[in-house]
């Protein structure tokens, strides 16, 4: 299971509805899922490997012996959090029911033990055939979720039960089996991440060691929980994030300008970015020669969070701090001084946390008890902070 992105295998059977799974793939990505598409060989007659590759941004393989250096079916199965087969044809359902392993997709079905959602689409007479009825019953007995196809017009003039469901119906079914909380639908969450850079000259800057991983974890989990997410990204790689509105900035001044636009619209601000506390008084237009590069005169940057704390109307505000000692005392002082609702203080003693997938520290709120966290994943912290924000939103 992945500690970063939630991973889905999207199996595609040889039905005309395969083209509708292109939209499904996009919608899964927008929800923050990483998607690996595994078509059956014959399904490529409907949608080709190049399309799946371009849409998913990942290699696409149909047989176990292709691309073995890139994709091993066992590691692919182990990486997945969920398995989705859409569309599933009568033949594919029969092969899965029989436990066959004659292409990569059916191998993966056997090799994986994650929740499985199967979305059949076929002609009504095939769906109602006793063989298909028995095969679907077998799959359901095995614990797989098999959706009911929709009733309506099919390709051509026929109609009946066999239509591929709407993308939103499939996503809702996936949310149900994946246990995703959808408690942030309709909420706009603004997140800042990374570290600002303050230019000394065109080549040099004052920066810091923030990787942006915590902000990415918050953005990803907020998306999974249904929020609208705006990310102001300072010098961090957000290419793995699908579905958020990302504004890239370099300096504290640029971040301030981006916040001025997005903050009034948000319900929750999570200020995860490491904003440089000071910047050079002058940023040279030309590169400074090393013989003249002997000192830098600095001036303080405004405290963006404190400024917003003064101007806020309805927003819940969550700040971060990094301390090496006296965590609780310093964090509580910042919580009050900056007008925050919640603060998370990272324990960075010994250079811990930067660039890692885990964190340790303490969550402080205005009223509740302090919560100490020891070596938790950044995803887990993200969800705890989102829980706090949501509670405060009422
Ligand atoms: N912050 C900000 N603007 C700044 C500096 C920090 O908005 N110019 C925000 C950060 O995004 C973070 C919190 O304030 O949410 C951190 O507060 P800060 O007082 O800078 O904490 P430390 O980095 O721990 O600073 P100090 O060295 O003052 O202890």
Helical content band: 25-40%
Bound molecules: cytidine-5'-triphosphate
Give the overall form.
Answer: elongated
CATH top level class name of the largest domain:
Alpha Beta
Q: What is the number of independent domains? A: 2
Query: Compute the gyration radius: what is it?
Result: 25 Å
SSE-based structural type: alpha/beta
Please give the largest β-sheet.
8 strands, mixed
Overall pLDDT score: 92
Unreliable spans are none
3D architecture notes:
The structure is a single chain. It contains 13 helices and 19 strands. By secondary structure, the protein is an alpha/beta fold. The chain has two domains: 6-178, Rossmann fold, CATH 3.40.50; 188-393, 3-Layer(aba) Sandwich (Rossmann fold). It has an eight-stranded mixed beta sheet, sandwiched between helices. Residues 252, 271, 273, 275, 277, 301, 303-305, 319-323, 334 line the site of cytidine-5'-triphosphate (CTP).
Structure summarized in a few sentences:
The chain has helices spanning 20-30, 49-56, 73-79, 90-97, 104-111, 124-127, 130-141, 167-178, 213-224, 252-262, 304-311, 327-337, 378-393, and strands at residues 6-12, 33-39, 82-88, 116-120, 145-146, 150-153, 159-163, 188-194, 198-199, 205-206, 228-234, 245-249, 268-271, 278-280, 298-300, 316-323, 342-347, 358-365, 371-377.
List keywords for this structure.
single chain, 394 residues, alpha/beta, Rossmann fold, eight-stranded mixed β-sheet, five-stranded parallel β-sheet, 19 strands, elongated, binds cytidine-5'-triphosphate
